[in-house]
Amino acid sequence: MDILQIIPAAQRVLKHYDITFLTPKEWATLIQYGSIKKYKKGENFITANHINTKIAFVLKGCFRFYYEKNENEITCLLSFENGLIGSFESNILKQPCTQTIQAIEESELFVIDYKDLEALYDKSPKFERVGRLILEYYLAFLQQRITSYLMETPEERYKSLFQETPDVLQRVPLQYIASYIGVTPVSLSRIRKRILKK
User: Fold this and answer.
1) N or C: which end of the chain has fewer CB within 10 A?
2) Is 71 exposed, middle or buried (0-12, 13-18, 19+ CB in 10 A)?
3) Each residue's pLDDT tens digit in the chain (198 positions)?
4) Residue 54: CB partners within 8 Å, gap ≥ 6?
5) What is the CB neighbour count within 10 angstroms for residue 111?
6) Which domains does the chain carry?
7) Sheet with strand 107-113: strands edge to edge
């Protein structure tokens, strides 16, 4: 995929973060620092216990973030088109990741090395603003996720996920959805039955 094909995809993603103020030349500069990469279903973007140096935007597909505990996989986040994925604990704190980020379906990412992102910040205040807006959006998303776990029932979390991503049942295995909302697959089945009866 050449630069002329990448720019529309990147613009579509960054428009999601309300980033529409870059000139065509600045778009070209930004794109040159990254690359498009394809991931097969089940392939890891990040593997736990390794140092990660990259972040990425999901152009197409779906990824899950999960921890391993007592030989169980706990899905904590799902990221679909336009989502930002990466391990900031690894990028910023220079320590191994605690999570694995895995493609749930055939996916495409726009990937950029965190060091290259920092180099972009030095080129122009506009690029620094891009980074700030994206991180602010990501922090707000994580705060909403934490609030959801503290204030909502699993049924409410399931409904919210379904509203945000109506085709989630066709894209994400039920065991990952159950883990994501904090219940067992059996409990998820009961929740779905209750919702269908209403």
Assistant:
1) C
2) exposed
3) 444 455 666 666 666 666 777 787 887 788 788 888 999 999 999 999 999 999 998 989 999 999 998 889 999 999 998 888 998 888 888 899 999 999 999 999 989 998 998 888 888 888 888 888 888 888 888 898 899 989 999 999 999 998 888 899 899 999 999 999 999 999 999 999 888 876
4) 45, 86, 111, 112, 113, 114
5) 18
6) 3-123 (2.60.120.10)
7) 34-39, 107-113, 54-60, 84-86
Residue type, 155: E
Closest CA to 100 of 92, 90, 110, 115: 90
In this structure, the chain runs to a length of 198
Please give the structure tokens belonging to residue 142.
């994580």
